[in-house]
Amino acid sequence: MDFYGLTSADARAWAAERGLPAYRGSQILSGLYRPGVARFADIPGLPHELCARLDGGFSLLPGVEHRRQESGDGTVKSLLKLQDGRLVECVSIPTSDRHTVCVSSQVGCAVGCTFCASGQNGVERDLTAGEIVYQVWFHHQRRAVTNVVFMGSGEPMFNYDNVLKAIAVLADPGGLGLGRRRFTISTSGVPKRIRQLAHDEPQITLAFSLHAADDETRNRIVPLNRRWPLAELLAAMDDYSTVVNRRMTFEYVLLEGDNMGDDHARRLAELARRYGAHINLMPFNPVVGSPHRRPTEEQVTAFARLVTAQGGHCTIRGQRGADIDAACGQLRRREDAGRAGTGLAGLGELIASLGEDAPGSAATLPPAADASPSAARPDGGAG
Ligand code: SAH
Ligand code: SF4
């Protein structure tokens, strides 16, 4: 039973189904958010006989901390071992006025962006709502969480229902009671879900992992672009922005020699102006096995200047946790090396599951003209 995936109403219904008074459901739910509670018997006020009836040695916790890395700047990255032995990362990023937790939505990722550790072995499975909620509660025990970002491993739009359920639980006053505006979902671009999110959760922030504003470059680094090219992504963003009247965020990982040319800056600024978007420039965090290079500080500043000069609002994301394996999916990858997920065939199935393709037609993605990330650099590969 995925207890951390229950809202107050779900917990009361769960109790009623077992012939218990509804308040027992609420009592169990509030017990989940007490430090040190791991089993029914740890919840204050639950009668012994009820614990014995419910328990059977059952752990309420969806995971336990398996590895931990602490950075000098206060960032803590935890690798949680789930009940089935799979590993997921969640990162706590405290600042003076905020405590942001970066959560994973899947074990691994089917999208396979060439710069990302999470996608190197494909996706193993979706996380349950409770497994997502627990990542936040885990770090909340250290300091109250103010913001939650879905920027750990996984593509949240491919685990849409569980991600939205987790947000509903975290927003529930019976859980952590976080305001909906405290959530950010980051996506590599799944048009159908972008449109759906505008209706389902208009208050949460959506960040678009753009990384290139032309198909030729984006096809090489974000394989999902071969299924939904920029024109389709932008059409979904147009629809999104007619419903949600808030500033969009573009994420742009800076890959030396791949997406940092003058043309790249111009196209990026053009798109940002069109949507009034804010751009987060994120210098590539080196990942073992990735073909990319991290740009120098001078190259990063020069690119940011070019974008700004052409009317694009951008900031360079400071590298929190620089002294630990900060890039998404790296700690897990180091621990879990050699475990294969479903890879790109899995991505085809996920795309098909959205009902946009005839059955069986989406088992593979169209190939990139040249799938090698560093070949044919539009900026001539200067560096
Ligand atoms: N799958 C979603 C959310 C998780 S990734 C998405 O792609 O948006 C969250 C962010 O981390 C993305 O913008 C991604 O591009 C960035 N990221 C992944 N690997 C990185 C790396 N090695 N260096 C810098 N940013 C990285
Ligand atoms: Fe998946 Fe996001 Fe990593 Fe791309 S950047 S592989 S979409 S987690």
Structural description of this entry:
This protein is α/β, with parallel strands linked by helices and 383 residues long. The chain folds into 2 domains: 1-61; 63-376, Alpha-Beta Barrel (TIM Barrel). Helix content is 33%, strand content 17%. The protein has a 10-stranded mixed β-sheet with strand order 1-2-3-4-7-8-9-10-11-12. It has a two-stranded antiparallel sheet with strand order 5-6. Helix 1 crosses helix 2 and helix 4 packs across helix 5 (160-171). The longest helix is centred in the middle third of the chain and has 14 residues, at 230-243.
Order of helices and strands: HHHEEEEEEHEHEHEHHEHEHEHH
Overall helicity: 25-40%
CATH fold-level topology of the largest domain: TIM Barrel
Give the name of the CATH architecture of the largest domain: Alpha-Beta Barrel
Which value, in Å, is the CA radius of gyration? 21 Å
Shape: elongated
The strand order across the widest sheet is 1-2-3-4-7-8-9-10-11-12
Q: How many helices in DSSP terms?
A: 12
Q: How much beta, percentage-wise?
A: 15-25%
Bound molecules: S-adenosyl-L-homocysteine, iron/sulfur cluster
Structural class, by secondary structure, is: alpha/beta
- How many strands, what sense, and barrel or not for the largest sheet? 10 strands, mixed
CATH superfamily membership of the largest domain:
Aldolase class I
